[in-house]
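Duplicate of earlier report; Aspartate carbamoyltransferase input re-posted below.
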Amino acid sequence: MSSELSVDHLLGIKYLKPEDIELIFKTADHFKEVINRPIKKVPSLRDITIANLFFENSTRTRLSFELAEKRLSADVINFSAASSSVKKGETLIDTVNNILSMKVDMVVMRHPNPGAGIFLSKHVNASIINAGDGAHEHPTQALLDSYSIRERLGEVKGKKVVIVGDILHSRVALSNIFALKLQGAQVKVCGPKTLLPKHIESLGVEVETNLKAALEWCDVANMLRVQNERMDISYFPSTREYVKQFGLNKKLLESLNKEIVIMHPGPINRGVEITSDIADSEHAIILDQVQNGVAIRMAVIYLLASKIKQ
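Output:
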């Protein structure tokens, strides 16, 4: 197995090879053990400076990256664009060049525009990690989701995974589809027709509009949040209607003739896509996903940084 990534940036899962994912997972295994030690820090990136640029609010992803960076002993600069000069009309390039003039080696960026990370990687001399670009990709979330499946079920290959909910507005869904297919899983999507992209089948996934049928089929159900903040029109009659057709509750789970693994990228709308008794049950690996997020992000940062050092 190669000991280095085939890419210089993590812009999206679609640019990775299966070997890259395998390497990230092997590296994350090592860091997961580090996180569980009494002293959780390693001096691996003592001479690397990382800037976290968040042009969109995100508490969980930002904290997870920050923790990963600090566990690796990197120097960290946090930049929240919501309260910055971007509001005063400064361009993305200006903002980043100002930050790079502070001798930054790596930029972790979340941006509302799809392709912002790719644009950036062509214009600045630093390693870019995409922490979510619009409704396009969110590669570290997909990696931690696959890693969590591997941890619970032994491997991802051959597993049946259904992604349920708002697929249309979800970067998590797209990155997950790419990552799962790359590792040889079978993927279905399930949700209201209005929340499924028109050409979703061209990605090699099947559409199922009946939640019970989808759950009967799958080994893993990844329940996505309905992204009301990205909706400028109403995509379904009411939340109550959505819950009735696509909400996961205990009764539905117990009606299946088998056990399945429940995932959720968070934040959870409890009582909408998933009820509290399921979110907190032993079927759910939601908190494992959070813990694995730090190990996966440590692995990605470490592997990209080792390419900078060469």
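Residues 286-309 form the longest helix (24 residues).

Merging into the original ticket.
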